[in-house]
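Appendix C reproduces, verbatim, an entry submitted by the partner laboratory led by Prof. M.T., so that reviewers can inspect both the input and the predicted structure.
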Amino acid sequence: MASDPSNSPFFDLVSNPRFIIYLVIFIVFSVLGWIRAKRWTKEENNSVFDAYAGKNLQNMNLPEFRFITHETTVQEVIAKLGLPSRRRKLSLDSVVEKQTVGAYHLNGMSIPVLEYDLPYSAAVMVMPEYPGNPNDKIRAVFYRGAQADEDAPPGAQAEEDAPPS
């Protein structure tokens, strides 16, 4: 006996408003999660850009990365540490204001990033001088601590995320 889907309580939204309530709750939480992820990504991108602009080497408390200096090349880093977990390009358009991008003719420029994963979702981002060829020297190293717990605010684990001293 085939059942008629129009007689199912699942499709009868008038007599079963819980479906609509759950759907609205799901949509609201999905949008909030997307906004939160986008905000955290932007904050991280800004921190990475600040390290790149300031030529910061945040590697002194990370023993396997201490050999990296401003004179080290990308090729030497890969020879010593192996291939990175990820290679990505951080677009300057995403971190610098549109006026600045236009004024300095930076449209389409991006920072090359070699990302090495560490335990507990931490990572070290090694950034060479632009354009990021094997013989280019390292400009900055950025340490991204372990990802914050879902319920905790982004700065809640700052002390736990600090590299070991």
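The chain has one domain: 8-161. Additional entries are available on request from the coordinating office.
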